# Entry
Amino acid sequence: MDPRSIPDDIAEIGRSLLRFVAQEVEPLERANAELLASERTIYDASGRFVPEVLGLRAEVRKRSAAAGFYTMFGPEELGGGGLGPVAAVYLNALLSEATGPGRVLVHPVVIPSPFTNGLSPILTALQPPLRDRYLGALADGSRTLCFALSEPDAGSDVFAMKSRAVRDGDDWVLTGTKQWITNGPYADHVMVFAVTDPELAAARKGGVTGFLVSTDQPGFSVVSTIPTMGHLGAEIGILSFDGVRIPNDHRLGAVGDGMTVALQGVNLGRLGLSATCIGLARWALTQALDYAATRKTFGTAIGNHQAVQALLADSALDIYSAETMLLDCARRLEHGDRALAELSMVKLHCTEAANRVFDRCMQVHGGMGLTNELRLEDGYRFTRSMGLP
# Structure
């Protein structure tokens, strides 16, 4: 993404962010190269990160928080940097373009997703007395969050959720299962949403309430991780709430207003995810351009063959159109426009465009493009999975 289209102060943050990765993250990667070289050592037999990897990710989070990057998109009222949508698009894309896919100490550790971790905007719905209790450890990276909305039978149709929270004195009693929850197997706290008024929920007029739940609560358990597309482990998982008691003051917002609260994080998350995918696509195109300039067939670089040129040109077209949509949508949001339709279109276009780019760049590399060594296939799998609703 062209930094000339970005305010100077944001561009400078981007340069500092890349210096941070080079000075703080890459030495950790080199020192632990054997551990991080393969998913066979990154994950245990159950598909969860091994303790050593979790420790390294915690170290990166804390260093990023100390440097100001981990919380730079958090709302100012929570103590975050308050950077807006344009900054989020540029910085997420920049980080992904510079580092590429498959680096478990970078994504999404240095910059957390706004609806998964860190100082999520959803936490603005937390009652002020509880902010002092929880926000410090979330801001400094020592504790982590997850966002639990989706269920086995309720993905995009959230009002079909079966999780129920029933009032019992000063508490709520929560029962249900959540699935596809990013950071779910590892989080210290869950921002979870459940039906509190079945009639309103059935009429799609509300009836869903959000709660902040600590994962050491009796009745909470991680059922499993959910490895996808050939991976040996995962950040995502299935969570179970079996009669978990939640104090009423741990509500996120008003009773029945959970969907409004949840969308505060989901919409910004879609924007950052889209930017990540397009940054990765730019990384892939750079690899393909370099390879096309050096690999020779029939006495000339393959970049001189029209078929290869078409793959590269179509990839550049996809990236340019996606970046244009991204920035336009981010600027609309920055100016106060809800841009809900645009956000959905951006997420769809960017994830699919990035996946097409990775497919073409693998083709440019021929058989080498399929190998784990080049990381192109890793990016292909990531962008394909991000294209789901």
